[in-house]
Each structure stands twice: as C-alpha cells, then as structure tokens.
C-alpha cells in the first residue's frame, strides 16, 4: 500500500464550487482548500446530515467485491419475496429502473466481476490512508478506530457461498482471516448465537460517528476561509466552455471550476454538464438503538450475513442497518422491513429486546451498475469534475475521491489509473 502523497507545489488559485456537502464533497473541499483555491460548497442540508450520516461506519480497505455477483439473477425472485430479505423493490419503480437493472446483472458475469474487483483495489487499498490524512488535518483522530470488519455465517453452507468472494480478495492481496466458531466467540464474546464461520478483515477502519466526522471537516473548512451555502441547486447555466452559473432556490452563483458531488442527486446535474451517467439509488435504512446501561455489545461493525444486516457500535448507540430497497428518490420511506429485523437481531444480542429505538432513518446510496464510482472530468466540459456513484463505499472512498478531485482541478497526474472510473465508460 502506497503512502499519501506529499503536498504538491502551489497551483494557480481558482474559485471552485462544489455541489454536495457529504463525505465526498467535504473531503474535496479540504484538499482543494489545501491547494490554495477559494472553495464554496452548496447543499440543502448541513454537512454530513444526508446520506453520509447513516452508514455502518466501515472503512472497507478490502472492499473489492462488487454488488452484482455471478448467479445473482437466479436469486433475485426469491429475495424479493422475503419480507426480511436483503433486497426489495417497489414494483411501481420497476419500469424506471429496468435499464439500470439489466446493466447491473450484466456486470455480474464472472470474468467482468474479476475485472471490476481489480479496478476497485486501487481505491479501497488507499482508503484508510486518505481518511487518516484528513482526520489529522481536522483534528478528529478520535472518531476513527482500527477494529476491523467482521462477517458472520450461521452455517457451513452459507459460508461456502462466499467462495468466490474469498477468491477475489485473495487475488487482490486483501488480508482476511477465516474464523471457526470458537474464534468467532473469542472475538465477539457477547454474541449469544453461535456462528459456524466468520471472515475478519483486520485492516478495516471504523468511523464511530460519521456525521460528527464530516462536521469536523466542515468546521476546519470554515475556520480556514471556506464558504458553505445551505441552498438547493435547481439547475446549471451552460455556456460554450461549460457550466457558467449554478442556479439555486436562493441565488445564482457564478462558476469558475465546478465539482458535482451530490450523491444520488447528481444524475440530472451530470447530464446537464455533458455526462449522462446511468445512476440510480439503493435505498438503505437504519435504526439507532439505545441499549440498557452496562449492556455488552459488539466491538466492531459486524455483518450477520444470513439475514444481511449489520450491527455497528456507534458513539450514540448500536446501529442496525438493512440491505437494499430499489424505489428511487421520491417514494416515501417504509420502515416495516428494518423494524422486522429487530426480532432477528434479538437472537444474536438479546438485550436488543430492551433497547429504545431513538432514530429510524432512510438514506440514498448513489449506485452505478458496475459498482464503481464516477470520478473524472466531464467528457464535454473541462471545467467540471464529477465525483459520485460510490454505492455502498461512499464513506470508505470519500477522502480518497476528494484527493483525486483536487488533482484533477490542479491538472496533476494521479497516482493510479483513473480510466476505470471515467464518466463515459460502458457501466457493465
């Protein structure tokens, strides 16, 4: 794993406008500010209170497994009929998402998956280094812990179903340990259910309060002269050389250099900026649980793989996160599915039965069919950089993406090939 690059010589200062104040947008803001640019961030919500707030907190340094895997298409009908399963779809949304789904399933071809895995490696292998660079800059080191990422399997059969995942990790040189039942018990002694197997990635990091991390980035950014505008972007005004103005609900802002990092809301803006990307939304839910005082819990983010939920020991309580719902940006939330998972989680950690639910939350993962983010210049306009589509890996890859954005604005070369993430790739 290579170390973070040293600060490059100063580049010509620009005024850079970033649309989006999540982990990607705020990370880009810090790196661009460090380069000497004047930076303005625009988002309708305070920094870190959108989709970046609600993830499981994992910095997945071994996350080389794409979402679409070989044989997934055979499992989809059964998953859709399971009320507590990992995959749900609002049937009214199916005609809209069908083209995305077709590309998604095509990306699950075994040879293609191996290629995608290799293309994800340069990103995930550098993820924690970039996080540590920014938390040091913002004075937020206490929020990230190196406790690893644990996946648990209730039977040998379900574990055997991960053989291809393990092949991909091994091929990419990802460090992981296969645990037997006793080793799982030693690592997480408070789990009541016995698990047949576990996969432990010891090098993964854990962000114990994601929105606090991004708030720390925003505070540092403001303290050093950055501007954050709480406005809703409606459209771009395009001139011969690209976007010239950002039109919001409150003002019209001139553009010198533009970064689109609006997560799931980036699709329309990217199309206006000359990059019609097949972006859609994998909606994810979580419940925040306040356990009785003194109740033992898990020591790290832990995936209960058979039911596809994660228990994550956040600073504010135990977080229970769900699988995927395909319903777009406009459908109202349906918390019944995540609420049903409480009963499943009680079998693993009985104290959940006495827990108080202090928040129920829905977020919108911006996802591409091939599980790779969109990071690069607009193919039409050189003054616009795109940085979105990280799917399940937004928190992991946000800081590294921010560093790449700063390199692109500066005209510097990247330390790895950016071609696999370009906006005009095939996406399957």
Tell me about this structure.
With 428 residues, this protein is α/β, with parallel strands linked by helices. Helices cover 31% and strands 25% of the residues. The chain contains twelve helices and 22 strands. The strands form five sheets. The chain has an eight-stranded mixed beta sheet. A six-stranded mixed beta sheet has the order 10-2-1-14-22-21, with helices on both faces. Strand 16 and strand 17 form a beta hairpin. The longest helix is centred in the C-terminal third of the chain and has 17 residues. The protein is globular, with a radius of gyration of 21 Å. The N terminus is likely disordered.
Work out the helicity level: 25-40%
Strand tally is 22
Oligomer: single chain
Largest sheet: 8 strands, mixed
Q: Strands across the major sheet, in which order?
A: 7-8-6-16-17-18-15-20
What's the pLDDT, averaged over the residues? 94
Residue runs with pLDDT of under 50 for 5 or more positions: 1-7
User: What's the Cα radius of gyration?
Assistant: 21 Å
Can you tell me the overall shape? globular
The portion of residues forming beta strands comes to 25-35%
Distance between the termini: 28 Å
């Amino acid at each position: 794993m290579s170390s973070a690059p040293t600060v490059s010589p100063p580049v010509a200062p620009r005024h850079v406008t970033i649309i989006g104040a999540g982990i990607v947008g705020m990370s880009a803001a810090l790196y661009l500010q460090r380069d000497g640019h004047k930076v303005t961030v625009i988002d309708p919500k305070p920094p870190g209170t959108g989709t970046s707030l609600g993830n499981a907190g994992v910095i997945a340094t071994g996350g080389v497994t794409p979402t679409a895997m070989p044989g997934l298409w055979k499992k989809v009908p059964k998953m859709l009929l399971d009320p507590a399963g990992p995959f749900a779809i609002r049937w009214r949304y199916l005609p809209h998402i069908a083209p995305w789904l077709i590309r998604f399933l095509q990306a699950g071809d075994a040879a293609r998956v191996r290629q995608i895995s290799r293309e994800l490696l340069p990103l995930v292998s550098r993820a924690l280094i970039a996080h540590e660079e920014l938390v040091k800059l913002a004075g937020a080191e206490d929020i990230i812990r190196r406790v690893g990422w644990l996946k648990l399997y209730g039977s040998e059969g379900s574990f055997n179903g991960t053989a291809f995942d393990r092949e991909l990790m091994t091929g990419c040189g990802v460090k992981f340990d296969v645990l037997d039942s006793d080793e799982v018990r030693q690592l997480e002694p408070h789990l009541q259910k016995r698990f047949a197997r576990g996969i432990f990635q010891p090098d993964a990091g854990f962000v114990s309060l994601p929105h606090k991390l991004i708030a720390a980035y925003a505070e540092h950014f403001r303290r050093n002269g950055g501007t954050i505008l709480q406005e809703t972007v409606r459209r771009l005004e395009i001139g011969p050389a690209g976007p010239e103005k950002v039109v919001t609900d409150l003002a019209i802002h001139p553009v010198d250099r533009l970064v689109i990092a609006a997560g799931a809301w980036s699709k329309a803006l990217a199309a206006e900026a000359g990059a019609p990307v097949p972006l859609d939304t994998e909606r994810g839910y979580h419940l925040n649980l306040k356990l009785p005082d003194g109740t033992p819990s898990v020591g790290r983010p832990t995936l209960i793989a058979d039911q596809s939920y994660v228990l994550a020991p956040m600073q504010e309580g135990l977080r229970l996160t769900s699988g995927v719902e395909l319903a777009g940006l406009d459908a109202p939330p349906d918390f019944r599915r995540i609420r049903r998972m409480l009963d499943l989680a009680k079998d693993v950690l009985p104290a959940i039965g006495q827990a108080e639910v202090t928040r129920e939350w829905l977020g919108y993962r911006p996802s591409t069919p091939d599980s790779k983010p969109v990071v690069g210049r607009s193919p039409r306009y050189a003054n616009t950089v795109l940085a979105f589509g990280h799917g399940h890996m937004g928190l992991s890859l946000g800081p590294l993406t921010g560093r790449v954005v700063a390199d692109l604005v500066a005209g510097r070369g990247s330390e790895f090939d950016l071609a696999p993430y370009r906006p005009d790739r095939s996406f399957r």
